[in-house]
Amino acid sequence: MSIDKSLRRKSGMSGSRSVLTRAERIEALKADDKWTEGRSPFNLPKVRVMKLGKKPKKAAKTAEDAKDAKGAKPAAGGKK
């Protein structure tokens, strides 16, 4: 039986996961130099999951844009 379209999540798996697979945990341990070859893949230590935060919005105008805006002519139909 399939799920109704109104009940489906539109974003799918776009959110961050709170649990890593065994392979992902081993890769994280290798990156931290805590993994030794030949070790059993069972009973692994905990690995912190880094959640990605939202990227900050860029400033509306940079310094160069601000200089250009000061020297720009006013829009047509503006006050004289």
Low-confidence region ranges: none
Name the assembly state: single chain
Separation of termini?
69 Å
Number of strands: 0
Topology as H/E string? Answer: HH
Which descriptor suits the 3D outline? flat
Percent of residues in helices comes to 10-25%
Discrete helix count: 2
Instruction: Please state the structural category.
Output: mainly alpha
The radius of gyration over CA amounts to 26 Å
What's the arrangement of secondary structure elements?
Layout: H1 22-31, H2 63-71
Output the keywords:
80 residues; mainly alpha; 2 helices; 24% helix; flat
Describe the structure.
- This protein is mainly alpha-helical and 80 residues long.
- It has a domain at 18-50.
- It contains 2 helices and no strands.
- It has helices at residues 22-31, 63-71.
- It is flat.
- The termini are far apart.
- The mean pLDDT is 76.
Kindly summarize this structure in a few lines.
This protein is an all-alpha fold and about 80 residues long. The protein has two helices and no strands.
